[in-house]
Specification:
With 309 residues, the chain is α+β, with helices and mostly antiparallel strands. It is 37% helix and 31% strand. The longest helix has 24 residues.
Length: 309
């Protein structure tokens, strides 16, 4: 069987804001009957999603996780199915035939349609998820090439769970991976629809980087001045820019990370309040309890009693 994929890219906003997939099967007589399958994709490029948008349903067939990959064994490949490289850490350069080229970093997916030459080069050691899939239901609009996810917390959480699924039987693990990938895709579609997408800092790579650093250091002693210096900004400039990107100051963001972590430990662990305080980056249980009570509306002990099953 021969598979040919033809892609038409258009900027028309009405008809071509939808992906149209035609699947044609032709039979020709040579010395023997041969089957020719033609997939024709009409893909919109750079248009707004319409209100009657259809998200698309993903069917995941192939999955693999690479950790700190130094280089690609094959500089170019052509796949018979849709492929996404979901970057967890690092950076690589890509080129999708004549459709798009660029660089991808953590928080990005690079989506390559079937039958398209996918050229790639590692620029920094690359940790990423290889996803091979098809569309059970094609989406109304598929941004071809690089997708940048604004909700980094949701992305990081899904990645952590996906890496733990090896403990499950293979078929069950694949079903869960499919669920996580579908949820991430649905979140990306919603990100495009909401007028507040820029509010999440999607357009400010410097602040996205600062937020990732805060996520790494949240449960330690965090110096906002050092973080501002690393960003090349004064403390005042850094505070204003972070708040413009995410709607809260960096200190407020760290406090929320700590409190969320504290709530999880109160519910899921038998640790004492003093121990939980240290795990969350606070010097002692007394100060942790004050902050917790002020912002959650009850003491850590009351929260634990109310939420443990």
């Amino acid at each position: 069987m021969t598979v040919i994929s033809v892609f038409t890219v258009s900027n028309l906003t009405i008809i071509t804001s939808y992906i149209l997939l035609f699947h044609l099967t032709l039979f020709t007589s040579l010395n023997k009957c041969s089957k020719l399958t033609i997939n024709i994709y009409f893909i919109s490029k750079g248009v707004n999603l319409m209100s009657e948008l259809q998200n698309g349903v993903i069917k995941l067939y192939h999955y693999y996780y690479w950790h700190k990959k130094q280089s690609f064994q094959y500089k170019e490949d052509i796949y018979l199915h849709w492929v996404a490289f979901a970057v967890q850490e690092g950076r690589f350069r890509y080129e999708l035939g004549s459709l798009e080229e660029g660089e991808a970093v953590d928080g990005d997916w690079v989506v390559c349609p079937p039958g398209t030459p996918f050229r790639r080069e590692v620029l920094q050691p690359l940790s990423f998820f290889y996803l091979g899939f098809e569309w059970s239901t094609p989406p109304s609009n598929l941004p071809l090439g690089k997708l940048t996810f604004a909700d980094q917390e949701r992305l990081a959480s899904a990645y952590r769970y996906m890496q733990q699924l090896y403990a499950l039987p293979p078929e069950q693990a694949m079903l869960w991976r499919n669920r996580f990938i579908q949820e991430l895709w649905d979140g990306y579609v919603l990100q495009q629809l909401l007028p507040m997408a820029d509010y999440w800092g999607a357009g400010d790579s410097l602040m996205l980087s600062a937020r990732r650093k805060l996520q790494e250091l949240a449960f330690q002693n965090v110096s906002m001045k050092e973080l501002a210096d690393e960003s090349g900004l004064s403390p005042v400039q850094f505070t204003r820019r972070f708040k413009a990107a995410f709607g809260c100051s960096a200190s407020e963001y760290v406090r929320q990370l700590r409190l969320d972590h504290g709530k999880r430990l109160l519910i899921e662990s038998p640790l004492t309040v003093d121990h939980i305080a240290q795990e969350c980056g606070y010097d002692n249980g007394f100060y942790f309890s004050r902050v917790f009570s002020l912002h959650i509306g009850m003491s850590p002990s009351e929260y634990r009693r109310a939420h443990r099953l």
